[in-house]
Design goal:
390 residues; alpha/beta; Rossmann fold; seven-stranded parallel sheet; six-stranded parallel sheet; 14 helices
Length: 390
């Protein structure tokens, strides 16, 4: 029996741990920022079940503990390998996710079709939205330009169909909570809905231990190697610099980027958390050249007292603090154009004031985005929905 049957509209934080909750996550084939958010939801709701389009147990199973995972009908080995290219099938996949029991609450973790899951009308639905689907909203041309020319017209038609379907799912949600003000603005513009904001959680383990003063020689790039991350810009810039760049991460662009890179750029691929932290601690700064929805990586780097040089657009504007009057109260600086010249100017500016940054201040700033802060804020949004005070 669902816990909601025994209660009215007077839920408290302590009630959440006993609730039957369905968590709908777009796919579970990697463990990145969106999955770290899912992990926190599972801490808040220890009895939750997980539904997803694709599930790779070898990668994600260790993070999900005893929670039941129900994948869609698309979760076949031959399809799972190409999950990001199967966007025309996403509506079919989400339609195959039939809820297995009565739930007190549905939470969709959304940067794809998750919010479109079928649900009983009386079950409240909170959508934690990382972004409206990039294929359809605001970034269609970027994805089309990354495809072979002969496929672009076909892909454009499929993106159009997916966009029409996505519009039919907007009212399936009772409360939108965005991962940033940046994404809340997209929800308003694209969906015509108001969204609250709750920043994603930064692992508290990253703040343990003293900050160390290692010799800092190389710059760092860290994250998925996909088109919109704009790693090309770094490679072009470092072709003109006598500086070392370490690139951590895997993705569809890795092989192409390696072919463009000079000898001063090293690709490290996928590394353990401990290895990543070691590289962060020995880095001069993180270079963050893409326009992100939010971007947890800059904050993870700041947790080690390391500053960030970021493109001044998107989610970075909500995490990187540039105080030109007091670099000691800054966590980095911005470059304003996605060009080699703009990035090189920013690196030159950074190196002229590098010694003025305060690692302790940078870490304290990142701590404001810790897991405990997320848990508290998200729990309040959930209670507002359950108690109908939103």
């Amino acid at each position: 029996m669902a816990a909601a049957e025994a209660k009215g509209t007077d839920y408290r934080v302590e009630d959440l741990k006993d609730m039957n909750v369905a968590l709908i996550h777009y796919w579970l084939v990697t463990w990145r920022g969106g999955e770290k958010v899912l992990e926190r939801f599972l801490q808040i709701f220890p009895k939750a079940d997980v539904y997803t389009l694709f599930y790779d147990e070898t990668v994600c199973g260790k993070h999900l503990g005893s929670h039941q995972v129900f994948p869609s009908k698309l979760n076949l080995p031959v399809l799972k390998k190409h999950y990001q290219k199967l966007y025309p099938l996403y509506p079919l996949g989400i339609g195959s996710l039939k809820l297995k029991k009565e739930y007190d609450l549905i939470i969709s973790s959304e940067s794809g079709p998750a919010k479109g899951v079928a649900k009983p009308a009386e079950t409240p639905h909170l959508c934690y939205i990382h972004t409206p689907m990039r294929y359809c909203w605001g970034y269609t041309d970027m994805y089309l330009n990354a495809l072979p020319a002969w496929t672009r017209k076909i892909a454009a038609r499929q993106f159009g169909k997916l966009k029409k379907w996505d519009l039919t799912t907007i009212d399936n949600v009772d409360l939108y909570v965005a991962n940033s003000n940046n994404v809340a603005d997209r929800v308003r513009r694209f969906y015509g809905k108001e969204a609250r904001t709750c920043y994603p959680p930064i692992a508290l383990d990253l703040f343990k231990g003293d900050l160390v003063n290692k010799e800092r020689k190389a710059y760092l790039s860290f994250g998925a190697l996909t088109p919109y991350k704009n790693i090309d810009l770094l490679i072009k810039a470092f072709a003109k610099l006598d500086r070392k760049l370490i690139i951590i991460g895997d993705g569809s662009e890795k092989e192409r980027l390696q072919g463009l890179a000079g000898s001063n750029i090293e690709f490290k691929g996928h590394l353990s958390t401990r290895e990543v932290v070691d590289y962060i601690r020995s880095s001069r700064a993180l270079l963050f050249p893409g326009e992100e929805d939010f971007g947890m990586i800059p904050l993870e780097v700041m947790s080690q007292g390391v500053p960030v040089i970021a493109f001044g657009k998107g989610g970075a504007l909500e995490t990187v603090v540039e105080n030109r009057e007091s670099r000691a109260q800054s966590s980095g600086l911005f470059f304003n154009q996605p060009t080699v010249d703009s990035l090189l100017e920013a690196i030159q500016a950074f190196e002229s004031v590098e010694h003025e940054f305060d690692p302790e201040w940078i870490r304290d700033h990142a701590r404001r985005f810790g897991e405990d802060v997320f848990d508290k804020n998200m729990s309040q949004h959930i209670l507002d929905l359950l108690n109908k005070t939103y």
